Amino acid sequence: MTKMLLCVIGALAISGLSSAQGPAAVSSTRDSNTPAPRPSAQIPAAPLYKLEDALLEWPLAPSEKAYSAIDGKHIHEYVEDLTAISRKYRDSGHPQFWGRIIGTQADTDTAEWVVEKFKKFGLTDVHIQPFDLPPQWMPQSWEITATGSGKTLHLESAQPAYQTKATTPEGLDLEAAYVGTGSEADFAGRDVRGKAVFIFSMPLPGSWRHTATAEGAVRRAEAKGAAAIFAIIALPGNIRTQLYPTGTNVPTFSMGMDDGYAIRDLIGQAPAGQAPRVKVRLDVKMEPGLKTGTVWGTLPGRTDETVDILAHRDGWFEAGTDNASGVATMVGLAEYFSKIPKDRRRRTMVFIGTTGHHNGGNMSGTWLLDHRDEVFAKSALLINCEHTSTVQTYLLGEDIRKANMYTGMLWYAGGPRRPKLQDIAVKAFHDAGVVTYATPERAAPGGEMSRLWPFVPGVQASDYNVFFHSDH
Fold it and tell me: Structure pTM?
C-alpha cells in the first residue's frame, strides 16, 4: 500500500498538468496575465498551441496502469474551483489584500468546498475542527505615490509585507533614496535617516527568498534610519508579491520591477538637491473574533493503521500553486481511493485540510505537533501535498518563458533514518516521471511536515517557483 500511495502521489504530480490532446491553435496575443516584456527583451513569436495541451507525458508502466484512472484535467478543475474562491473574495471588496486568507469568507468557502468533496466521495467522520483566532493583521487599503521632476508615479504593485507596521492616517511624506542591493557598500557615505529607501532584490528564485532579506538589506536599511522600505523584486513585469514578515518596525513593502525601475529612474534623473518625494499611506486593522478550522475526513481500510494525507488550504492571491495544487492533489487521492473497495485498502486513510499555514500562529500545524502522539500513533506514512505542480519557467533576458515540462521538486522521503521508504520513493518518482532535484533535502522542505518529520515517516515533493506568493 505504501508503494501504491507513493506511485499515486508521483502520478498526480505530473497528471495534474498532462493528458495532452495534441496541438491546438490559439490567438497570437500574449496571455492577459503575462506582463509585456520590456523593450530590450527577446520577444517570442506567437504561440502555436495551448501550453496545457502540449505538456510532455510520461507513460505509466504496465504494472501501474490502474493509475490511468487519475485524470489530470479533472483534478485541475479543483485548482480552478479554489482559485475562483480567491477571485470572488477579491471582487467582493478586497482588491488589494486578497486570497484564501485565514479567518476570511474565502477561508470559510474553502473549508466548505473541501467538506463537500469529502462527503461526495463517501469519506466518514467529515468535520471541521474549529479554532478561535487572535486578532488578525488585515490591511484595509494603501497607496504609494512618488513625485519629482514634474512627474507623479502611482506605484500600484507595492504590497505590504505580512504583519508590517501601518502608517498614521495622514501617512508619510518622505524623501526617496535608492541604495542598490542594500549592502554595506551601497550604504557607504549615504544618509537615509527618515527617507523612503528602495532596494533592488534578486529573487532566489521568487519572493519566498530574495536577496533583500537573505542578505540583511531590509534590516540594514531600518538600522540606518529608513522611515519606509521597499524591496524591488527583480522579476520581469510588474508582479505583486506577498512577503513573509520582515521583522522591521517601519512600513515595509515589496514592489514589481517595472514600478521599481520607474522610481529608480525618477531618483536618478532628479536635479541635485531635489530628490523625489514619496507618499506612503497604509491602513491596517487588527481584526478580532475571526475563526478558522482544520477539515478532517477518513476513508476506512482493513486495519486501523493509517496513511495521513495533508494539504494546507490557505494562500495569498489566486494561490494556484501554493496551495490549490496541493489541495487538488489531496482531494484527487481521496476521490481515487474512495472508488477502491475497502477490502483492497489495507490501511485507513486520513485526509487533513489544514489552516493557518501563512499565518504566524499556524493553527493546524501547531495543534498537530502538540497532539502528534495521539494523531500519528498508528501512522505508517504522512504525505504532505504542498505546491505539487507547476510548469517550468526560465528567465530569458527580461521575460519569463514557460516550458512544456513540469518543474523539478525539492523532496524528502524519510531520509537516511528510513532508507527503505526513501528507496521506494526514489523508484516511484522515477517510474511516474516526477522531476526532482538530484539530491533530497535533509528534512521536510516546508509546511506543516517541516515540524512533524522527526516523529512520523513522511514524503513530500514541493515546487518553489518564480511566481511564488504572487498575483501571477
Answer: 0.90
